[in-house]
Design a protein that fits this description.
Elements (H helix, E strand, L loop, with lengths): L6 H26 L4 H24 L6 H29 L4 H24 L6
Helix pairs in contact: 1-2, 3-4
Amino acid sequence: MNTLLPRQLRGFVAAGGLATLFHWLVMAALIAAGLEPVLATASGSVSGAVLNYVLQRRLAFRNAGPHRVTVWRYIGSCFGAWFCNLVFFFLLNNLFALPVTLSQVVTTGLVAALNYLVYQRLVFHEQTL
């Protein structure tokens, strides 16, 4: 796998996967503790986004600019990704009448690909060594 995918893409996938797992674990723990599911997923999402930022800088975008710049770009990209998720899911589920699970899987793939491009070109825009 090391020769098939560049280090940056491997790091992006690993960071995103770990952050998603963390989101789901926080959400499940909060639901088990009695929190309403919508609030639990919102809290899990924020927790996952924070972990994702840290992991993306360590695993995928090691030469990124300073935190004072990248963190604000990252927060903006989170809002953009949330909006794209909403639009893509709505279109797939309502306009194209795909089932919920398939709509979310396709949406997640589309948003992940978009996030990689946004992170690479705008958020973490690595400095040349």
